[in-house]
Recover the amino acids of this structure.
């Protein structure tokens, strides 16, 4: 957990989303079998509240934390367990701890985009899953500058070509 959690809680309160935040923490705690403090810290990171809390008062105007949505969170966690990734409890915890921004918000959409952009050798869903279990951040690789006519679009942080060169 990080030291700015009280700032996150103040921001959540100011946004009027305390109840939804609490519900989201409870869902994550139960679904991922983790304690409340860890679940809250992962939500804060995954929904960009951690970055907001660490920003200066001036920069907070430009930070865009995502409001918690308990139903969408429940759907995302259910998809991670029951969808094509079929993550077990340990795998789910590992993925959430490694890349909360990627896994807590629309993982199904990210999976489809990452698989569509993947190089041929990773296009098989079981091969992609095996790779994701080693490095969960692969779910955020939604671009491939080697495919199509676009070439490089300065998406290196999300590009398969850059990923393979890491």
């Amino acid at each position: 957990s990080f030291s700015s959690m009280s700032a996150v809680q103040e921001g959540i309160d100011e946004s009027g989303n305390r109840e939804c935040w609490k519900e989201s923490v409870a869902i994550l705690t139960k679904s991922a079998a983790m304690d409340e403090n860890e679940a809250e810290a992962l939500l804060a990171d995954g929904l960009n509240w951690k970055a907001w809390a660490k920003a200066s008062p001036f920069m907070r105007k430009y930070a865009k934390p995502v409001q918690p949505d308990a139903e969408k969170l429940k759907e995302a966690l259910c998809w991670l367990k029951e969808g094509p990734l079929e993550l077990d409890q340990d795998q789910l915890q590992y993925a959430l701890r490694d890349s909360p921004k990627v896994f807590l918000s629309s993982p199904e959409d990210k999976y489809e985009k990452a698989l569509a952009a993947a190089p041929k050798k990773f296009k098989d869903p079981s091969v992609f899953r095996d790779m994701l279990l080693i490095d969960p951040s692969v779910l955020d690789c939604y671009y491939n500058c080697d495919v199509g006519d676009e070439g490089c679009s300065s998406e290196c942080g999300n590009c398969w070509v850059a990923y393979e060169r890491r």
